Amino acid sequence: MPQNIRDVMTSNPCTIDAEKSVAYAAKMMLEEDVGLAPIVEGDKLIGMLTDRDIAMRVAAEGRNPDQVKVRDVASKQLITIDPRQDLDEALRKMALHQVRRLPVVEEDGRLIGVVAQADIARDGDDTQTGQLVEEISKSGGRMSSIEEGQFPRQVEVVQPQVETLMGQEPQVEEQQQEEEGISKVQSSSRGRRKRAAGKRKTAARKSTGTRKRKTASRKRSTAKRTTAKRSTAKKRSTAKRKTTSRKRSTAKKRGTAKKRSTAKKRSTAKKRGTAKKRGTAKKRSTAKRKTTSRKRSTAKRKTTSRKRSTAKRSTAKRRSTAKKRGTAKKRTTAKRRSTARRSTATRKTGTRRRTTRRKTR
Question: What is the pTM of this model?
Answer without folding.
Answer: 0.38
